[in-house]
Design brief:
The protein contains 30 helices and 17 strands. The protein is of the alpha+beta class. The chain has 4 domains: 228 residues, Aminohydrolase, N-terminal nucleophile (Ntn) domain (Glutamine Phosphoribosylpyrophosphate, subunit 1, domain 1, 4-Layer Sandwich), CATH 3.60.20.10; 220 residues, HUPs (Rossmann fold, 3-Layer(aba) Sandwich); 106 residues, no CATH class; 64 residues, no CATH class. A hairpin with a 4-residue loop joins strand 6 and strand 7. The longest helix has 18 residues. The two termini are 34 Å apart.
Length: 649
Amino acid sequence: MCGIAGFLAPRSHGHDLLDGLAQRMGDVIVHRGPDGGGVWTDSEAGVAFTHRRLSIIDLSTAGHQPMTSGQGRMVISYNGEVYNAAELRAELQASGVEFKGHSDTEVILEGCVRWGVTATIKKLIGMFAIALWDRSEKQLWLVRDRLGIKPLYWTAAPNQTLIFGSELKALRAHPDCPREIDRNAVSAFMRHNYIPGPFSIYKGINKLQPGHILRVSVDNPTPVNEAYWSMDDAVNQGHQTPFLGSDAEALDALETLFTDAVSRRMIADVPLGAFLSGGIDSSTVAALMQANSTQPVKTFSIGFNEDGFDEAVHAKAVAAHLGADHTELYVTPDEARAVIPKLPDYYDEPFADSSQIPTYLVSAMTRQHVTVALSGDGGDELFTGYNRYFQARKIGRMLNLAPSPLRSAAGAAIRAFPPSFWDGVFKLIPPSKRPPQAGDKMHKLSTVLNTDRDGFYRRIISHWPQPDDIVIGGHEAKGVIWDDSLKQRIPDFTQRMQYLDTLTYLPDDILTKVDRASMAVSLEARVPILDHRLVEFAWRLPENMKIRHGEGKWLLRQLLYKYVPKSMIDRPKMGFGVPIGDWMRGPLQEWADDLLSESMFKKHGLLEAAPVLEKWRDHKSGRRNWQYLIWDVLMLHAWAEKHHAGGAA
């Protein structure tokens, strides 16, 4: 795992200028690679690469980057891990390629020389963000892995300079980097609590989309951006070649594929472990790791003493059953709150998933013991795990059965009582069946009773449902979640939600959160469930192998039950979060009041103050829980204070 950055500038630059610029771009992402760094430049072509190294495979100087191919044709700067490098190395050696070391970097590089860039990338199993310079063709290639596990930003500056990097701070270190805030992106942020790709907070800076290759040359400076893998293809292939075997055959196939994905990600020349929450996904990863290890696997979890936010007790039980070497840390509110001022630096652009706080804390604790940690991210999207999938199925049936006037009346009846009333009603339900924040969920339900199912999905994933009304000058781009053609391509509504989550929420929220939090402490996080072969297999499975008896992840559960007793796992899904709403009414209130002051709204000029402050007053009084919407604004203003202290452009 590493950090990369660089640029291609067609106008002439001296070597010292190129070298200095590249060095500065690398210096600001040293946290991604504290074990070493390097710069490579070609002043005649105007190209510069920089690399920060976190040594994982081949700790020797033979793994140093930027790396030049054996014959000198290509140069690479690369972030990630390729887990089938050994097989590809053998194939290349059989064709006469000689290797200097045993890093996966050299395999990618020599593969691109021998097979071509696109053909090589399609062979890779792993996570990666890659920059390649072809010296003979004078062409730059940028590549991002299929699911978007590793980040890569790029911009074509007005003077035809193409700048790229793992994080926005690397691009900002270049003087030609755009710095104008994209107000349309702010609107999207206020809906989602993250900025969806391909956009960034800056106008003209893009996220390279997952599964894409961008190329640009000295002779043709217009970027060409093409997909080499897509979710559409995975979905279509799944529908065309569905899995037709029995339950037992499906379980065997899943176990074989999942075990291979986990085993490949256990290869490292440094200490390795796993995040363990005690939920289905992380427990399955830890179980398969332990089944394929002769030593106790190191597992890590954090806990909170606040009711409803502690999964550590479940993680500890699973680890004990597996025989893992488990480490847990109970975090005090003061320790968690101390992370908040650092968030604008870690995330570089507004990002308001409050689970970024515990994700950072568990990463920091884990890094004290290991350099690589496997995570369970991706299971909800692939195997139908999110609560909203089941809520949407129920609402869909209601929308189909109830006429519009009846739905309107039901919505009005729900809104006639405050959320606190509904919280009291749901207390009559056993805790194991009771949804968290029931009153707020009832009010959210009331607002979607007059919409179709796709409108329900948009509403349930939205924080501020009409963001253009509060973002000054913002006009949210209508992306894939508004694409009506999806109904024809993916007729099943649950599958449409999974597809949309995998394209949007997964790379731009979940994987961004994990990458920035882990890289802030120089920890490599690996994601075996998002092995693209496992993704493609999951889309072949029929619905009843994912949802059965009203529960999601049916097949994944059967695999886990082979290693962990059902009684340890079957419980209501708990989000990975902190009591941010209570903190904003308590120890964080002074900090929040400052960021939500009239002067702050005026200074940055991004949002209309009145609707935000109305919700802030409601939240402080306890009348409503607007924690997520208020956290969006706090993270936006905290970011603006850090990166645009003079006021937004």
